[in-house]
Amino acid sequence: MAESIPKTITVNLSRTPYKVMVGNGLLAQTGQHAAETGLTGHCGILTDSNVATLYLKEVRKSLQDAGFHVDEHIIPAGEASKSMSHSEDACRAFIRAGLDRKSFLVALGGGVVGDLAGFVAAIFYRGIPYIQLPTTIVSQVDSSVGGKTGVNTVEGKNLIGAFHQPSLVLADPATLTSLPPREFREGFAEIIKHAAIRDPAMLDDLLAHDPNNATNLTDIIANNIAIKARIVEEDEKETSGTRALLNFGHTIGHAIEALAGYGNLLHGEAISLGLRAATILSEKLAGLDPAFSNKIIKTLHHYHLPLTLSPTLTTPELMEKVGRDKKFAAGNPRFVLLKSPGNAFLADVSLSDIRSTIEALRSEPNPTD
Ligand SMILES: NC(=O)c1ccc[n+]([C@@H]2O[C@H](COP(=O)([O-])OP(=O)(O)OC[C@H]3O[C@@H](n4cnc5c(N)ncnc54)[C@H](O)[C@@H]3O)[C@@H](O)[C@H]2O)c1
Ligand SMILES: [Zn+2]
């Protein structure tokens, strides 16, 4: 794909500001941009088995051409690699390869690679810089920006980790063309979430985009990164509540994802159902205009995302999962609701409202114009 002039968004954190660049062809310029960021010396690329086949050669060459000494560590693709044992393996591999506290890491892949590489960078020699080269929609618009890194344990997802901001993010939308269609489309659930909570006009751009077209996405990706960047600037460590607004659609969505069994419903597919649930609750409890709910539903439908809950996922089992959500601290169901387009807030929602909303997800939505 032809190179384009990249768009640049700055994440203005007082201690660790950094640039996020978005543009087709950026992967091949990794070395140059890493050098311009002031990184030097020995770097370790962390990537997964799928992405290595597609993009490792290009990234390695770019870094070598810019004078970096490059080593790499490849993990098996999939969520199971986001573990303490894989982080230890990566640390040990990079120590053996000669990386030290003056080195830096390069995360090349989706959110699994990004979260793991960021965590390894946070603990390697007590913390070294890293850059993110996200290659999925979720990782470009969400996980590569904001510095949340971590791994899963059997007890739960993302329970061990560190805040460690990247030094640079290079999002190359041309990489999205190699995603399988289902994985491509699921990423739009997070984009639609961003539109709902911060930029309702973006829904028109999303409805105008062909859902099977993985090109011409630079503007949409850049606009989404800007939303995430502004939220992270307002609430870097998730203490003020602003960053929690990114959980819109995720409370019931996570319960559905967990009950379906990880992998049966992709995360974005479960979040699509969770977003529909959140609009139902927002209409009932916060007076959201049903016309806006309809528009969200229409956009999810446009990207072929599921909207009707399978009868195999029972209400009592879903309620049990909702109750276990870590955001429901002290039995207080803190939920993200919308008052109006682009205007989200945290509210307590009763268990009976959650139950009736889950029931409402069982009938097909009827989006009108
Ligand atoms: N840190 C955060 O703030 C944050 C935010 C959201 C999600 N996450 C985390 O992100 C992870 C999910 O990320 P994901 O959805 O990117 O999943 P992923 O990293 O597992 O990637 C999905 C699949 O696509 C493959 N792949 C990646 N890029 C490809 C490409 N360009 N072409 C073809 N195949 C490609 C991968 O090998 C993998 O099989 C979860 O672990 C989640 O917890 C973190
Ligand atoms: Zn999500």
Overall description:
It is a single chain. The protein is α/β, with parallel strands linked by helices and 369 residues long. It has 14 helices and 11 strands. Helix 13 packs across helix 14. It is globular, with a radius of gyration of 20 Å. The chain binds nicotinamide-adenine-dinucleotide and zinc ion. Nicotinamide-adenine-dinucleotide (NAD) binds next to helix 2, helix 4, helix 5 and strand 8. The site of nicotinamide-adenine-dinucleotide has 28 residues, from helix 2, helix 4, helix 5 and strand 8.
- Summarize the helix and strand pattern as letters: EEHEHEHEHEHEEEHHHHHHHHEEH
Ligands and ions found: nicotinamide-adenine-dinucleotide, zinc ion
Please give the largest β-sheet: 7 strands, mixed
Q: Let me know the average pLDDT.
A: 95
Structural class: alpha/beta
Number of strands: 11
N→C terminal distance: 36 Å
Radius of gyration: 20 Å
Low-confidence stretches: none
Overall geometry comes to: globular
Helix proportion of residues, in percent? Answer: 40-55%
| Strand order in the sheet with the most strands | 1-2-9-6-5-3-4
Q: What multimeric state do the chains show?
A: single chain
Fraction in beta strands: 15-25%
Number of helices: 14
